[in-house]
């Protein structure tokens, strides 16, 4: 049996605690958060940035933090000036796990009939693209949160893992499902059954992330990517995201059928006409998101 020190070393955030969210707290649009910092970035302020801000707890994902992330995501989703979102943590930790003290005394009945992890996957329902910029630890719920995003960029010292097995449970927010679909059964099984971590380099080789950057350049590069996305037609970008995501949910035949329908749907937009006209006229398109 692993010693307590081993568990702490392999999964530091899984034992962190977080004060419960006050039901009386009111949020102002884009601010007044306790556990996150939000702002608009990019030359045209068309990128939404959400930074997890619980450094002493290595950005452990407690109930209050998840609620604030969802609040910020919805604010950016409803902001017509925002075309893409970047989600990041600190240089030491993206998010090093869930709040085990919130779960420690829960019963099966409370978990099954209650709201435990209920809102964790709200990010997957967002229409706008979300880029995870991962530095440091992305363990347990932190790794699951990153996998819910559309693109993952990582700092060269990032570490990914699902160490829930070390405290007598299993991933509960997509760790066994998304990870297996992304990296394959063998590596996913090894990570889930041993609790071992993989490096940024190993994660890229396995297809978990798309690019690696120096630690101090990571967020800047993620914002640059988000700017490229935000400069395209927002409505067509949403269609493209929907089509790619369908590849994980449907058969190949159904996915191709859906892709064609969405492709045809672009011909009902002004932006498709503007984009093709600009191409023929050899100029930059002026998309209106219509």
How does the SSE layout of this entry go?
Blueprint: H1 4-10, E1 36-41, E2 47-52, H2 63-78, E3 84-88, E4 93-95, H3 100-103, H4 108-113, E5 130-134, E6 137-139, H5 141-148, E7 151-155, E8 159-161, H6 178-183, H7 185-194, E9 197-199, H8 200-206, E10 211-213, H9 218-230, H10 234-246, H11 252-265, H12 270-280
Helix pairs in contact: 10-11
Describe it for me?
The chain is an alpha/beta fold. The protein has 2 domains: 4-230, 2-enoyl-CoA Hydratase, Chain A, domain 1 (Alpha-Beta Complex), CATH 3.90.226.10; 234-280, Orthogonal Bundle (Lyase 2-enoyl-coa Hydratase, Chain  A, domain 2), CATH 1.10.12.10. 40% of the residues lie in helices and 14% in strands. The chain is built from 12 helices and 10 strands. The strands form 2 sheets. Strands 1-2-3-5-7-10 form a 6-stranded mixed sheet, with helices on both faces. It has a 4-stranded mixed sheet with strand order 4-6-8-9. Helix 2 (63-78) links the parallel strand 2 (47-52) and strand 3. The longest helix has 16 residues, at 63-78. The radius of gyration is 20 Å and the shape is globular. Pathway: Lipid metabolism; fatty acid beta-oxidation. Keywords: Acetylation, Fatty acid metabolism, Isomerase, Lipid metabolism, Lyase, Mitochondrion, Transit peptide. This is Enoyl-CoA hydratase, mitochondrial. It comes from Monodelphis domestica. Belongs to the enoyl-CoA hydratase/isomerase family.
């Amino acid at each position: 049996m692993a010693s307590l020190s081993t568990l702490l070393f392999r999964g530091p955030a899984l034992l962190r605690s977080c004060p419960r969210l006050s039901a009386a707290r009111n949020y102002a649009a884009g601010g007044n958060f306790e556990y996150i910092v939000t702002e608009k970035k990019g030359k045209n302020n068309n990128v939404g940035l959400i930074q997890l801000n619980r450094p002493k707890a290595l950005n452990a994902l407690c109930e209050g933090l998840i609620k604030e992330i969802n609040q910020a995501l919805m604010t950016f989703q409803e902001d017509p000036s925002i075309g893409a979102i970047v989600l990041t943590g600190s240089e030491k930790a993206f998010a090093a796990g869930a709040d085990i003290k919130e779960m420690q005394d829960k019963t099966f009945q409370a978990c099954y009939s209650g709201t435990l992890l209920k809102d964790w996957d709200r990010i997957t329902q967002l229409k706008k693209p979300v880029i995870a910029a991962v530095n440091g630890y992305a363990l347990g719920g932190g790794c699951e949160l990153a996998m819910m995003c559309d693109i993952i960029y990582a700092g060269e010292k990032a570490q990914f893992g699902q160490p829930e097995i070390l405290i007598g449970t299993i991933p509960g927010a997509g760790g066994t499902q998304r990870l297996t679909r992304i990296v394959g059964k063998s590596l996913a099984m090894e990570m889930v059954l041993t609790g071992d971590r993989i490096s940024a380099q190993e994660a890229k080789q396995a297809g978990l992330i798309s690019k690696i950057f120096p630690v101090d350049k990571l967020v800047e590069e993620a914002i640059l990517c988000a700017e490229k996305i935000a400069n395209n037609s927002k409505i067509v970008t949403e269609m493209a995201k929907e089509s790619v995501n369908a590849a994980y949910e449907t058969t190949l035949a159904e996915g191709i059928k859906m892709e064609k329908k969405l492709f045809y749907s672009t011909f009902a937009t002004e932006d498709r006409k503007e984009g093709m006209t600009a191409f023929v006229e050899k100029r930059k398109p002026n998309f209106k998101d219509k």
